[in-house]
Write a structure and sequence with these properties.
The protein is 43% helix and 12% strand. It is an alpha/beta fold. It folds into two domains: 133 residues, Rossmann fold; 68 residues, Winged helix-like DNA-binding domain superfamily/Winged helix DNA-binding domain (Arc Repressor Mutant, subunit A, Orthogonal Bundle), CATH 1.10.10. Strands 2-1-3-4-5 form a five-stranded parallel β-sheet, with helices on both faces. Helix 2 runs parallel beside helix 3 and helix 5 crosses helix 8. It is elongated, with a radius of gyration of 19 Å.
Amino acid sequence: MDRSAHRVIAVDDDPFTCSAVSAMLLGAGFVSVATYRSAAEAIAEVEHVDPTVAVVDLDLGEGPNGVDLVEVLRRHRPGLGVVFLSTYETARLLGVSSSRMPRDAAFVVKSTVSTPEVLAMAVERCLAGGQRAEDVVSNSPEASGALSDAHLEVLRLLAQGYTNAEIAVRLVVSERTIEKSIARLIKVMGIAADKTQNQRVMLAQAYLMMSGVVRRSS
């Protein structure tokens, strides 16, 4: 693939990360790289830049997330290659179901991007097509892979501090269903019963580690 022939946009709400991604892409041989700090900025410029590839942060803060942005960008350019960058092990931890993840895209966990070539290879994979974003990952999700979208949504809300009753109302299910979901989470994630530790707190900590907010101990 002739990397110099592609027009790339990088979208990340963190200025340092945005600059770092741009530098890596330029270092890997992509010569046309435009950076944007929000979905609105990228959408406003898409017709002018006419990108062939978008490297997009999954979590763009308040407002549209990376998947929302890509859906809009692909209305302007259906063949757009997409690489999602994220601290999250899986988009499902952000509340994005597997069915919403676009095809012909790659999903890369930020902590695994050790060299420009790692990012460049992700771009090449997404341009090759034929897969959904989370079929192509740079590291495999751990416990999250054994959980359904519904279970991960319960975990996400629990980590945000909602009670079982509040989660049930938000998801329009019974409180008993939420209790069963939490029991399933505890089992799959290997959280042992321990009187000295709160299992809900441990579940919240596990979510934060999978989302990249808290680093795992080595």
